[in-house]
Amino acid sequence: MYLDILDTTLVCSKICNWRLLEEQSLRFKHLQAALIFDFKHNSLEDGPGIRSVVFFKGCPLDCIWCQNPESKNVSSELWWEKEKCIDCGECIKVCPEGAISNSNPYYIDRSLCTLCFECVEVCPSKAMNQVGQEMNVEEIIGQVIKYKSFFDRSGGGVTLSGGEPTLSMEFTSILLKRFKNEGIPTLVETAGLFNFELFESLILPFVDIIYFDIKFIDPIQHKQYCGVSNELILENFIKLHSKSQVEDFELLSRTPLIPGITDSETNIQQIIEFYNEHTVKKAVLLPNNPAWIQKLERSGQHIIFDTDDPICKLYDIEKEKKLKRYFSDNGIEIAVG
Q: Residue 209 in 3-state DSSP?
């Protein structure tokens, strides 16, 4: 398995995290819209009841197993789905930069592509797609509110996912408030790397449930596999967990089970000890699903794993059951997502 051993120096980790947050905050601060790359309606997997999921684009982490690799970049991207391509050549004709060739298979020179998306406009089979559309609050509300009757009957609602919804904190706050005004329950999924004071004032008043990812306890491993240290993430979780004991919102932590990485005996034991130290009684395990590998191909990103690597396969069901029992034996109720 390919691993880049990243710099593990932690002396400036908090400073670097804050600079990263400031840069991303500036990117979104003055926008009246957010970059959205997908909606998933009638979902039964992203919170209680039937839900609509809004996927924000842009994330401060760079997890090597990201289930939505198209969500990482804070800009729109071009996707090519080869299984939909009918080899008509229309995209080649309209590309002003000559970035597309009809070699077998089709090839997009990403260094030449300026993301004008003219190829998307002419593609008859929808093989070419623009991933990431700027949408304002009312446009997003309009996509979701038509499903309100399903939310009401099932105890569902709207889930803001990503990417990372907290990158555009002010926008997300306005959006959540509008959903609450429409009587739609709200859930936010987060990687946890945010300014807590802003989150506390802008997000917490309008959210019913928070799904919070705990991938590692060790900051060196977190930086190695996710691109940034997790000290701020763990601090934010501890603060939110404390507030959830006395305030009217639910906090649920989630750990992706990535074979040979997050499911190591050491990491699992550290997570259990962290939960017990902070009296966390419920958590979720998310078994690896390799569907993200196909997404890498569509966006022209390199696949850094061999096809026979465990990370390229569905998670072992017996190991999943074993880990669930292990958490349970240590006083932590586990659901599998």
A: strand
Nearest CA to 262 among 301, 310, 302?
Answer: 310
**19: Cβ–Cβ under 8 A, 6 or more apart, which residues?**
none
107-124, pLDDT tens digit by residue? Answer: 899 999 999 999 999 999
pLDDT-derived band at 337 (thresholds 50, 70, 90) equals: confident
Count of H helices and E strands in the chain? 12, 13
Structure tokens at 100: 């597309």
The CA-atom distances, in angstroms, between 142 and each of 24, 34, 148, 154, 169 are: 27, 15, 11, 20, 20
Q: For residues 57 and 36, give the distance between their C-alpha atoms in angstroms, rounded to a whole number.
A: 6
Fold of the CATH domain 77-130: Alpha-Beta Plaits (3.30.70)
| CB distance 187 to 161 below 8 Å | no
3-state percent helix, strand, coil for the chain, nearest multiple of 5:
40, 20, 40
Which 3 state secondary structure label does DSSP give 43? strand
- Report how far residue 233's alpha carbon sits from residue 240's, in angstroms, rounded to the nearest whole number: 11
CA atoms of 215 and 211, how far apart (whole Å): 13
Domain 13-74+132-336, CATH: 3.20.20.70
**Domains of the chain: which residue ranges?**
13-74+132-336, 77-130
Instruction: Tell me the one-letter amino acid at 40.
Output: K
Q: Tell me the residue ranges of DSSP E strands in 27-173.
A: 34-43, 51-56, 77-80, 100-101, 107-108, 128-131, 133-135, 157-161
Which residue type is seen at 75? S
Mean pLDDT to the nearest integer, 218-227: 97
pTM of the model: 0.88
Residue 219 contacts residue 229 (beta carbons within 8 Å)? yes
Pairing mode of beta strands 128-131, 133-135:
unpaired
